[in-house]
Design brief:
Radius of gyration: 14 Å
Largest sheet: 7 strands, mixed
Shape: globular
Number of strands: 9
Number of helices: 5
Strand order of the largest sheet: 2-1-5-4-3-8-9
């Protein structure tokens, strides 16, 4: 499980256009957030909140990446539908999600299942994880991450 002072795993995923993106090659500072499924209410609100603050993140030279197991084509439609300007990543194989520790056992109505833990990782300029949020509640989360990114200096 990726935690503070760790680096992102050396795993390649695809962006919404199908281009390969290696997480270990991304330069910080950056935000990487995991969400369960594109175009669902909580995930849409989270993406819209990060988009609304995108100019503030850009001023910090801190790109925002959102990752789910959705196919790149679905991510492209999701981004277009809501005019999102965060980079959406597809981890169909669950390689990144599992290595980072965002693929967890969940429970609903007494039934257990595996799913993505809504979580966020703030990576510093040194390439190490500076802060981790797990079991994220969407309301005000993007603003909290922005405040932490500003505090990185």
């Amino acid at each position: 499980m990726t935690d503070i002072n760790d680096t992102l795993p050396d795993v390649t995923v695809a962006d919404s256009a199908g281009n390969a993106v290696n997480l270990a090659a991304l330069k910080g500072p950056l935000v990487l957030y995991f969400y369960p499924k594109a175009d669902t209410p909580g995930c849409t609100n989270e993406a819209k909140d990060f988009t609304a603050l995108s100019a503030d993140f850009a001023a910090l030279h801190c790109p925002v990446y959102g990752m789910s197991k959705d196919k790149p084509a679905k991510l492209a439609k999701f981004a277009a539908k809501y005019e999102l300007n965060v980079t959406l990543l597809s981890d169909e194989a669950s390689d990144a999600t599992e290595q980072i520790g965002a693929w967890v056992e969940k429970s609903m109505y007494g039934k257990s299942y595996m799913g993505i833990d809504r979580s966020t990782y703030l990576v510093g300029k040194d390439g190490k994880v500076a802060q981790v949020w797990r079991k994220v509640k969407v309301k005000d989360h993007a603003a909290e991450v922005l405040a932490a990114a500003k505090a990185l200096g």
